[in-house]
Amino acid sequence: MARIKDVAAHAGVSVATVSRVLNDNPSVTEETRDRVYAAMKELRYVPNAVARSLRTEATRTLGLIIGDILNPFFTELARGVEDEARQAGYTVIIGNADERAEEQDHYVRTLVEQRVDGLLICPTAEVTPLVEELVRTGRPLVFLDRTISGLDVPSVRADGATAIAELVAHLKSRGHRRIAFASGPATLSTGRERTEAFAAAMAEAGLDLRAEYMAAGDFREGSGRAITARLLDLPEPPEVIFFGDNLMTLGGLDEIRARGLSIPGDVAVASFDDVTWFVHVDPPITAIAQPTAEMGRTAVRLLLQGVAGRSGQSVVLPAELVVRRSCERKGA
Amino acid sequence: MARIKDVAAHAGVSVATVSRVLNDNPSVTEETRDRVYAAMKELRYVPNAVARSLRTEATRTLGLIIGDILNPFFTELARGVEDEARQAGYTVIIGNADERAEEQDHYVRTLVEQRVDGLLICPTAEVTPLVEELVRTGRPLVFLDRTISGLDVPSVRADGATAIAELVAHLKSRGHRRIAFASGPATLSTGRERTEAFAAAMAEAGLDLRAEYMAAGDFREGSGRAITARLLDLPEPPEVIFFGDNLMTLGGLDEIRARGLSIPGDVAVASFDDVTWFVHVDPPITAIAQPTAEMGRTAVRLLLQGVAGRSGQSVVLPAELVVRRSCERKGA
DNA sequence: GTCCTCCATGTAATCGATTACATCACCATA
DNA sequence: TATGGTGATGTAATCGATTACATGGAGGAC
């Protein structure tokens, strides 16, 4: 491939001049500029970003490590990140941690080696030594969706507590009393927060929180299904199952469907996290919607502040309850 | 950050030796190796992939340009690509073309600047000058899902013709005669191929192909909805609408639902491309499933052959019909 | 005419790794 | 004891850009 040196020779100027043209330096004659552009075109010159990055110590690249690429929540998050980064002239490298700490660490390592200018992480579990060290190095970093307590890292997340309280009130108003929560893992901040918010909401509503109605899954389809099976096998099964994320909801629907039970007649269903197809399920699923893409965009803005050397404030965006028909009164 | 020079000084060896340790060169004493590792650890040394790439002219990075990041088909494709690339020690940079040629070109440019070792493209439309030039340069390239005729580029795609013929036969066996096809854009190979296969299948089944039942969309939700509205407003609306991809199906379902019509009673629905939630729709949607993740994995293998200098053969994987309940006989 | 300023452009060091080639110590062999 | 081979390590060029500093010519002020 043509190098800057070739372009310089072809245009009869020095490499410095070509570099100036490349970087829109105003101190180049229009005539020279034109000659250089012509030479570039003729030689099909494509600047080498690797060489440039080595010299400038900036790659104009951001790293994004998501929890699970098959989860539409993270896909939409990635979309928001992509959009905002693209607008600011950055490229995004997405790593899929597959909800495993070792995969997450693999990507942290790779992305640091690649010298990304900043890192967006949806931390997979409790802090790993590598992430801890990453924080210490002071490299621009933002936690997205999830946080890790004890680490001073700006973050962007959704607050579901208000919406969860509304949901519980909604369920109560429809005559439901026995409400189960199929939560995410307690190792994730989102898992814990939703569980706590649910417990608080139940208390506020004056409803019993039974131990056997609380089960922790892993934010994936399989655990949603398994938990649903266990709950439905209880001597006194719950009237409602509230799932901690959209994939667990999907698993739960599988199990309910497989047993030939009807929603909400036999068991009502609600989901934390909304996805497009919930309106097409029979009945449409009541869900708590997060401002997902907006979370991604916000996180990029926050991260770029860090890249610019300014420190930013964590952001919490509100989630909201979307009532559909999957939680109506029994027999209604 | 610590450089190789610092590690060398700290361990009391030359940079060459450190580099050899880094690259598992066997001609380093175990004792020296240990000293170097200790120095790396102490200095928290992370090799600079940018510098390495500049020297070795290889980035161990692949570029993937997908059509639309919100389309679960491409997400799953990306997942397959990710998995296989990761196993081979490559990092993937994903670019979202958002079904626009200019966005696609933007990513082609960026990825070539970044000197990715190979490029996987789901070409957005007819060939652009940039893509044409890319092909001429001989850089390792594989087309994924879609192809561009006239360009000699290895590709990986699914063959839907057989499955489409089966689908039409299935529809006929259920008593359907007036079948509409909401296809993708004729500018995409997948749009054209599915349309042709559908036409051929209808002919083979001895069914009429009415012009007003053939409409081209853009593989996105909105066009699926608009086409459905148009079809249902026809003096003699079709008995079945077959959608060209999962997002257009989603849009179609929206419209049908909004009109309060029942499936398959008022109109039957089938989809090219299957997604997880189709089983939860009422009724579950009959669809043609592509081996999506496998396509992604295969494409990476093919691309890596190109990277290694060997030229590979295009691959066509079979799609298959999954019969559910959305196309049963009227009133059945 | 001389000198100074300013502007466009050129020269060469630099970023952090890899690697061809050089070197040096050690040992075996004649 | 000289010779040569071998194996570990070092020296320095190199990859392709950016950029501080140098240079040289044009034009204005006196």
UniProtKB/TrEMBL annotation, chains A, B:
PROSITE patterns: HTH_LACI_1 (PS00356), HTH_LACI_2 (PS50932)
GO molecular function: DNA-binding transcription factor activity; transcription cis-regulatory region binding
Ranges for domain HTH lacI-type: 2-56
Record keyword Transit peptide present: no
Cleavable signal peptide: none
Superkingdom, taxonomy of origin: Bacteria
Database matches in CDD domains: HTH_LacI
Keywords associated with the record: DNA-binding, Repressor, Transcription, Transcription regulation
One Pfam family from the record: Peripla_BP_3
Transcription listed as a keyword: yes
Name of the protein described by the UniProt record: LacI family transcriptional regulator
Organism expressing this protein natively: Nonomuraea dietziae
